[in-house]
Each structure stands twice: as structure tokens, then as C-alpha cells.
Amino acid sequence: MIYLQVDNLAKSFNEKTLFEEISFGVHKGQKIALIAKNGTGKSTLLKIISGQETPTAGTIVMRSDLTHAYLDQNPILEEHLNVIEAVFASAKGITNIIKNYQSALLSGDHDKISMASDLMDKNNAWNYEEGIIQILSQLEINQLDKKIGELSGGQKKRVALAAVLISEPDFLILDEPTNHLDLDMIVWLEKYLERSNCTLLMVTHDRYFLDRVCNDILEIDGGKLHRYKGNYSYFLEKRSERIENENAVVLKAKNLLRKELAWIRKTPSARTTKSKSRIENFYDIKETASSKRIEKNIRLDLKGTRLGKKIMEINYLSKKFDDLTLLDNFTYTFKSNEKVGIVGKNGSGKTTLLNILTGLIAPDLGYIETGETVVLSYYKQDGISFDENQRVIDIAKDIAEVVKMNDGSKVSAGEFLTQFLFTPEMQYTQVAKLSGGEKRRLYLMTVLMKNPNFLILDEPTNDLDILTLNVLEEYLNNFKGCVLMVSHDRFFMDKIVEHLFVFEGNAVIRDFPGNYSQYIDYKTIKESQIKKSNPKNQKTEREKPNRDKPNKLSYKEQKEYEELELEIEQLETEKSMIENALYESSSNHEEVMAYSDRLGEIIHLIETKTDRWLELSLKIE
Fold first, then answer.
1. Lowest mean pLDDT among 145-159, 166-180, 300-314
2. Residue 241: inside a domain, yes or no?
3. What b/e string do you get for 578-606 counting C-beta neighbours within 10 Å, with b at 16 or more?
4. Largest Cα–Cα distance in the chain?
5. Which neighbouring-strand residues pair with 202?
6. How far apart are CA 161 and CA 185, in angstroms?
7. In a domain, 430, yes or no
8. Domain boundary at 481, 500, 522, which?
9. How far apart are alpha carbons 592 and 83 in whole angstroms?
10. 325 - beta bridge partners?
11. What's the order of all strands across the beta sheet hosting 68-71?
12. Boundary residue ending a domain (258, 289, 320)
């Protein structure tokens, strides 16, 4: 069953053509990823399909009975609304259906009630508010009465995501859904979409996410559309083959063009029919030979400043905001050419540490000693505020007129911009005319052109296209200096980092000796062991303790151990009762809010008490 048909679609802005003659269909159950370089129209295409923008040419036909939802890359929510109100406001169609049903009930008209009830069924509108709360809880948004204006960027993205997911639409259109989500949330969303029966079209740069969720890939390249039936690895292989074949055709045409050009110059003006045909063929060959298929890649071959023996020593750093402690006596000494990743939940202090190390904020306690040879560059998550009226070339020149390359040569700011795929025409345009991804690429360029030997990167993968990420990965792997970075891109982290700072919450930072995938394997095994040791799961075994094994608990600890078993069991029972109550809850908003708050408290208590129970149980040999 076809859900969407796109025919001969084109979009231009002024003199710039993003794409043309794009045609494709989306069938029920397909999960499609859209890949393209920044500035080639990925987000624009999604906006056109979702009805946010109009095409220059072409048609889009979507099934009339289809429900669809669109997540913008940078969703805009009303700042004065609270979380629940914002989700309702984002789903006006569902809200109207609920109001229509309530109005029908008040009218007492059985036909109206029947029709309104059918609409409620079709749009999954029953228990809609309770469904919102459950989704928000899974996305770790528990303060439902908090104003949108008081939320972080990551929290706002999760609220917008909840608004899209709650209605369970037939067709989901998502633009960079993993941006601003922490790794746990990305894994949750990944599993949610894997299980979902929805049809999906999305833009994402997260290659693990793409591989596990999508079964089709569309690529916009040179304004044309190419389709690949398979995962990311298959896409890379087939794309390489396609480009190789196209390059071979261009090269063959160029060789043939030289021969035909010689013939054209020698042939007399009087033409036979055969000659005229050959002349017409000559112009076809000339068009093919002049193709710009030989694609250009970003060159990152900068010379780094020499790094001395002393790099950076972090001594007893502590930082708290109000009652929230993020860092507590954190100490670490960086070694030469070390590459460290930082992972942890949003709000656990990752960016705070980076801001302290770069001097943007001061610690409450502790100090940092930095070596004299260190040249530090900081790529911030929120980027820098470019003057939108400034030209691209002027921004580059404000950083450096010339840039030192690894081979000892120097290039001008303009030449370096060209290496970053900013054409001469683009260099003399205003920043306002760049796409979001192109602005990110420009920002990355301004960070790297300082020839740093210590790079601090906060979410460098956001808004960068996959092809640019491949080049950045290669650069960082060969980088002769230190790298400290926060990233939710698991593929990127696995290729770069040697070990992790894991922010576990409550100012606990674990130094894990491995990359992200190795950490996840370790974490999965640990959680499995804890689950097996959980007092609820092991009640029978603990009722019959092994008398041959000595108990090393003190009397007080033994009593605490036994009380914890009982308390955890009672909390688990209460948790189940509240979850059932939420599922079957009435429309009483205050009651639902109270249930939700208590559920959050219980989950925290269970985790805390289970950790303590496990700590005591380890003393029993």
C-alpha cells in the first residue's frame, strides 16, 4: 500500500537550485533515511512533504485517510505553556477530536456520539493525557507543570518528540530526532521505532541509529535522488560503486572528446548527413565530459602546534548549582595524544566540566594547571553567534589570514574555505544565506584553523552531514594532540575515543577504559547481574541461605539487609499499583500529576535501596 508519492519535485531559492526532478514513493511499513550533504535540501524536502513549505515544481500525493506527524530539527514551542499544555497545543487535531467527543456527549445525540467515538478510536485519542504522561516519563520529563521557557534544549526536544509520538501516526517525518538527546534516550527511541509499525521518513546523521531503524536509504546528490535498499554499510558500498562508475563515464567521455574535437577542427564546412549526426553526438559527449561528477571532499590536513610534556592537570574540581552538585573533587591529568569521550545523562554536568576547563565558568573549588605549549580550541554545542550580515570570507579572515598545513605550506583563508567546500561564490555571500549545516561546518572550520593541539568538542556531530563526519573522524584519528569530547553519536565515539568519563549522576564520574560500545557491553552485563541479585528475583534463594558460607555482615548491617528486602518488595508493589492506576486513570488532572510525581520518587528509591542491598550482599561470601 502506497502512503506517499512524490513526482518531479524541485525546489529553488533565488538562483540556487537545491534539487530537481525528484520522484519516489513511500509504502506502508517502510523506514527510510534521507542522506545528503549539508545545504542540498534534506530539511527542505521534509518540510515540503509535511506541508510546511511549497515546492517550486512537482507534485506530492499523500493518502487522504493517513495520519502523519512532523518533528522539526529545531522545534518551536510556546515558552509560556507548561509541558502538558505544550504537548496538547502541538496536537491540535487530537485536541479538537476530544473536544468534539465531549460536545457530542453533552448533546445526547446518539448519532453524533457514535461518529465522535469512531474518530476517537481512529486517532487513538482515548486516555490521551495519560498516554502523554507515560511517554514523557519514558523520556524522563517528569515536571509536567514546568514552563517550556525553563527547560533545557534537550528537554524541549524531548517534549516535542513526545508530542509527535503520542498520537501514534501512520506516517512519521523526523528531522534529526537524536539531536540534543542523551545516549540513553537515543537507545530508547531506537527501540521504540524498531518495535513501532509506523512508516518512517527521517534525516539523521547517527549511523548506528540509522542502521538499526531504517531499511531503505534515499540520497540527494548533485540535485538528483538515488535509492538504496539496505542499511548504512550497504549504502556506503553501493554509493562508492555508483561514483566510480560515473567517474569512469566522465573520464571516457573526456578522452573521446579530445578525438572528436580534433575531427571537428579538421572537417570541412560542407557536411554530409553522417557528419551532421557525428557533430550532434559531439555536443552530447561534451556535456558528459564537462560533468562535475568528480566529487570534492573536505580536506583536513592542518598542522598542529607541538605539545609539551605538561598538558592539563585537573585538581579537586567541585561545582554545584543551588542544591545540585555536578562535580565533587574531580581530579585528572591528561597524557600526550589522549582521546577521551564523555557520556552521561543530560544535566549531569558534562558541558559544565568543559566550560570550566575552557574558563567560561569558574569552579567552586579546585584549580586547573595548563602547560605553556597548549593551544586549546573549544567547539561549543550552541556554536557561536555569527553576524548574519557578515560575509563568509570575512569571518574566516577574522580568525586567521593564513592557515598552516601539515606539509609545511600555508594557504590563504579563501583557499582554506575552498577546502571546506565553500565555493568562491559562497565565500562572498552573507552568512544568513547558509543552511544550518553549512553554518555548523563554517563554525568547525573556525575552530580548527587556529592550529590547536588540544581540542574540546561539545556535540560536534549535531547538524553535520554524514560525509563531513567521515572526514572529521579521519582528521581526529590522525590528530597529534589531545581530544576531549561530549557526543551522543555512538559510531563517532567508537571510532575516536580510547576511554570514557562516565557521568553517573550525583557528581560520580567513572573513568572507563574503552569506547562506548565496550561500555554498553559492560553496563549490560552489570545490570544483568544486578537483576539476578535483585531481592525480588532471588527471594526463594535468600530464604534458604547457604549455611556453609560465613556471613561477614555486622548485626546492624544484617538487620538493614533484611529490612531492605522488605522495603524494596513493598516499593515494587506500590510501583505496580501506580502504573496500573496511571493506565486506567480518570481524567482528573491533579490526580494524574500526583501519581506521576510519586512514580518518579519510587523509581529513585528502588534504585538507591537496591544499590545498597547489593553492596551489603557482596559482603556475604
1. 300-314
2. no
3. beebbeebeeeeeebeebbeebeebeeeb
4. 113
5. 33, 174
6. 11
7. yes
8. 522
9. 14
10. 320
11. 68-71, 171-175, 199-203, 31-36, 216-221, 224-228
12. 289
Residues 507 and 585 placed together within one structural domain of the fold: no
Take residue 212 and report the three cell numbers written for it.
538499526
Give yes or no: residues 431 and 318 share one domain. yes
> What three-state secondary structure class fits 244?
helix
Residue 255 in this model has a pLDDT that exceeds 70: no
Q: Do 333 and 280 fall into the same domain?
A: no
- Greater confidence, 251 or 245? 245
SS3 category, 592: helix
Three cell numbers at 313? 592537570
Three-state SS at 333: strand
In terms of DSSP H, where are the helices of 82-140?
83-90, 92-107, 110-122, 128-138
Q: Which three cell numbers stand for residue 476?
A: 581526529
Q: Are the C-beta atoms of 621 and 549 separated by less than 8 Å? A: yes
- We report the CATH number of the domain holding residue 84 as 3.40.50.300
How many folded domains does the chain comprise?
4
Mean pLDDT value across residues 168-177: 92
- The Cα–Cα gap between 41 and 25 comes to 18
Distance CA 336, CA 383 (A): 27
> 307 in a domain, yes or no?
no
State the Cα–Cα distance between residues 340 and 222, nearest whole angstrom.
Answer: 37
Cell numbers describing residue 231: 542499511
93: nearest Cα among 73, 123, 71, 61: 123
Per-residue model confidence (pLDDT) at position 286: 59
290: its cell numbers: 564537462
> What's the pTM value of the predicted model, to 2 decimals?
0.69
Give yes or no: residues 178 and 284 share one domain: no
> How many other CB atoms are found less than 10 A from the CB of residue 197?
8
Q: What are the CA-CA distances from residue 195 to residues 198, 477, 517, 614 (Å)? A: 9, 35, 22, 33
Specify whether the CB–CB gap between 499 and 512 falls below 8 A.
yes
224-228/216-221 β-pairing: antiparallel
Structure confidence at residue 544 as a pLDDT band (50, 70, 90): very low
- Residue 172 grid cell: 512519521
**Residue 326, in any domain of the structure:** yes
Same domain, 206 and 59: yes
Same domain (yes/no): 396, 360: yes
Q: If you average pLDDT over residues 350-354, what whole number do you get?
A: 94
Task: Identify which of 218, 230, 216, 226 has the alpha carbon closest to the alpha carbon of residue 29.
Answer: 216
Which residues have C-beta within 8 Å of that of residue 291, sequence separation ≥ 6?
246, 250, 253
Nearest to 505 by CA among 184, 166, 176, 36: 184
User: 406 and 337 share a domain?
Assistant: yes
pLDDT (0 to 100) of residue 153? 73
DSSP structural state of residue 388: T
Say if CB 280 and CB 286 are below 8 A apart. no
Q: Is 19 helix (H, G, I), strand (E, B) or coil?
A: strand
**Which phi and psi angles does 577 have, rounded to 5°?**
-65, -45
> Do 204 and 96 share a domain, yes or no?
yes
How many residues can be counted in the chain?
621
The single-letter DSSP state of residue 198 is: -
Question: At a CB cut-off of 8 Å and minimum separation 6, what does 530 contact?
Answer: 610, 614
Structural domain harbouring 602: 534-617
